[in-house]
Amino acid sequence: MRTVGCIGCGNMGGAILGGLAGALGGKGYVFCGHTRTPERMAPLLEKGVTAVSGALPLAQEADVVVLAVKPWQIAAIVEEILPALGREKLLISIAAGISIKRLKEFSRNLCPVVRCMPNTPALVGKGVFAVCLEDEALRRENKDEALALFSALGLCLSLPEERFTAFSALVGAGPAYVFEMMRGLAQAGVTLGFSHQEARTLVGALFSGSAALAGERPEHLAQLRDAVCSPGGLTIAGVNVLDRAGLAGLLVDAVLAANARGLEMEE
């Protein structure tokens, strides 16, 4: 049995640990977690996760150590667990803005490291994860394990670290763009006479179904859009308004602005 331990069991750390326990528990893996907020552990305990009293004891017990704390806490946490690190350990960080180089410095090159960037749909098992596997100390089995773990929680891509900021701008921040579009459509639904709950339910199903259709069909997204637009119909009237407003261009600008800010933060 391999043991995966997570230090920090807040929203994202808890979602990852709970999701892994649900998907892989008893299938060659056991799971443990440590958090400073004990009540965060309650739902994880129900999934078979073991609570550990400290970061160092967790690192001593785990084969794979996931760091799910705030970026500014990473250096101190790694310093605390240094006595437990070694070549047999795999250290994975989901902290934004903490590079592989800095992780190696913090851990004094004692163990191989992986950098991972999730997005918030991981909270419901529909995450998109980017993993950086560029640490030369990683063995093939380390790489395979990192990819397998996060693939159990959604879509997992191996990306070079130089593309992590772009990934964050497009996919990490992406749920905010999607939720804003959903909010606008729900507001339109209420304006048309639907209740708030009805509008939210309808719009949620609309996005879920549209995403599933786009995932299964090979056509260009513009073709899928045009297929909904009957000549002289109501859909094309609505699409014309979006085109005049430049919705596609606004989304591109939003992603580019997020990317530029991300690059500033890394300097």
Task: Give your account of this protein's structure.
This protein has 267 residues and is α/β, with parallel strands linked by helices. It folds into two domains: 2-168, NAD(P)-binding Rossmann-like Domain (Rossmann fold, 3-Layer(aba) Sandwich); 172-266, Orthogonal Bundle (ProC C-terminal domain-like fold), CATH 1.10.3730.10. 52% of the residues lie in helices and 14% in strands. It has twelve helices and eight strands. The protein has helices at 11-24, 42-45, 55-61, 74-81, 100-106, 140-151, 164-172, 174-191, 196-216, 221-228, 234-245, 247-266, and strands spanning 2-7, 29-34, 50-51, 64-67, 90-93, 113-117, 127-132, 154-158. An eight-stranded mixed β-sheet has the order 3-2-1-4-5-6-7-8, sandwiched between helices. Strand 5, helix 5 and strand 6 form a beta-alpha-beta unit. Helix 8 packs across helix 9. It starts with a strand and ends with a helix.
Descriptive key words:
single chain, elongated, eight-stranded mixed beta sheet, alpha/beta, 267 residues, 8 strands, ProC C-terminal domain-like fold, 2 domains, Rossmann fold, 12 helices
Task: List the topology elements.
Elements: E1 2-7, H1 11-24, E2 29-34, H2 42-45, E3 50-51, H3 55-61, E4 64-67, H4 74-81, E5 90-93, H5 100-106, E6 113-117, E7 127-132, H6 140-151, E8 154-158, H7 164-172, H8 174-191, H9 196-216, H10 221-228, H11 234-245, H12 247-266
Parallel strand pairs: 1-2, 1-4, 2-3, 4-5, 5-6, 7-8
Antiparallel strand pairs: 6-7
Helix pairs in contact: 7-12, 8-9
